[in-house]
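FAQ

Q: What does a record look like?
A: Structure on top, sequence underneath. For example:
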């Protein structure tokens, strides 16, 4: 197959995306496919008159590294020489249309909020993962929480705040996070009023809407889902503090245990809730749900990631490997499941 792996973009998670994208390209190349990595925002300078010919240059890529801090998005914007739109670079449409399928390896922003998926649908371009509607629902943490409550998915109490709100009161301790962000960027835990004020100021730097949640002290878990079936559960143990941006992507900063060291009943309940959460949000093909197990034994589902990372330290590949699916076959499985919707 000829496959475009779409990565980068303008999200604060672009470095994570580019690292995922390089690994995915290499996996497809090793499996005999022709795969090209394309940056959604930067695009490509020269596209052949017949875009199919671009795949003749397909090859393995060097591993991409991820820094401890999020990238400078303003600098990325300034580096582009031109593009078809404010968020789609030159040649992206032509190359994606020429491919058998586009593997979306983006994280956050236009990769996960459904906007890109809707644009693909309008242009008849095949892509991996969930449809635009499910992506839009899952991207907004407040919408997700509201739907979870109605569907019986346990989730912490929370409050939506908008920039300029005068009543920002919330019981401490609490967790403050941008409403549509990812990779724990802009997230803080506040124990005092001073920390709470600082956390709100930091979160509002990223977005105009912020979610404040009750702080739940406990163990962290995550559970991937592939083709509607939950994968083995992983426990996440950060070296210190909580599972922030650096702990997610720097090797050795976090201990990840798959399968998680919990009893069978808890494992099955996490898997059941994972599958329910995906159905509630109208998600397809693959995703990953994050959980907290409180000290009193209660489970809380925090959110669902519609485009889980596929980096060397990412969690979905770990769960898949425990289920007997190695990395290249996981990538192929995601493509195969995604292609099914176009065969109907």
């Amino acid at each position: 197959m000829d496959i475009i792996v779409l990565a980068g973009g303008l999200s604060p998670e672009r470095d994570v995306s580019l690292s995922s994208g390089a690994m995915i390209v290499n996996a497809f190349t090793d499996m005999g496919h022709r795969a090209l990595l394309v940056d959604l925002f930067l695009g490509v300078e020269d596209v052949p008159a017949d875009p199919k010919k671009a795949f003749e240059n397909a090859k393995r890529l060097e591993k991409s590294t991820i820094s401890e801090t999020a990238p400078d998005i303003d600098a990325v914007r300034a580096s582009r020489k031109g593009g078809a739109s404010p968020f789609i670079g030159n040649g992206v449409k032509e190359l994606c249309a020429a491919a058998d399928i586009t593997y979306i390896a983006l994280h956050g922003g236009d990769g996960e909020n459904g906007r890109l998926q809707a644009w693909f649908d309008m242009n008849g371009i095949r892509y991996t993962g969930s449809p635009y509607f499910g992506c839009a629902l899952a991207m907004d943490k407040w919408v997700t929480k509201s739907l979870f409550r109605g569907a019986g998915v346990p989730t912490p109490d929370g409050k939506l705040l908008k920039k300029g709100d005068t009543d920002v009161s919330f019981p401490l301790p609490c967790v403050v996070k941008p409403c549509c962000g990812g990779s724990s960027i802009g997230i803080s835990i506040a124990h005092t009023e001073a920390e709470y004020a600082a956390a709100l100021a930091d979160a509002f730097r990223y977005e105009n809407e912020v979610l404040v949640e009750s702080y739940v002290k406990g163990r962290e878990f995550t559970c991937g889902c592939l083709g509607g079936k939950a994968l083995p559960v992983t426990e996440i143990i950060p070296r210190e503090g909580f599972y922030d941006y650096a702990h997610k992507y720097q090797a050795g900063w976090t201990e990840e245990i798959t399968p998680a060291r919990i009893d069978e009943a808890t494992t099955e309940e996490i898997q059941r809730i994972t599958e329910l959460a995906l159905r509630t949000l109208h998600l397809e093909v693959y995703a990953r749900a994050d959980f907290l197990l409180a000290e009193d034994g209660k489970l809380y589902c925090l959110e669902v990631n519609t485009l889980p990372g596929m980096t060397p330290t990412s969690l979905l590949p770990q769960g898949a490997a425990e289920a007997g699916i190695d990395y290249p076959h996981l990538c192929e499985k995601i493509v195969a499941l995604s292609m099914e919707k176009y065969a109907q």
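Q: Is there anything notable about this one?
A: The mean pLDDT is 91.
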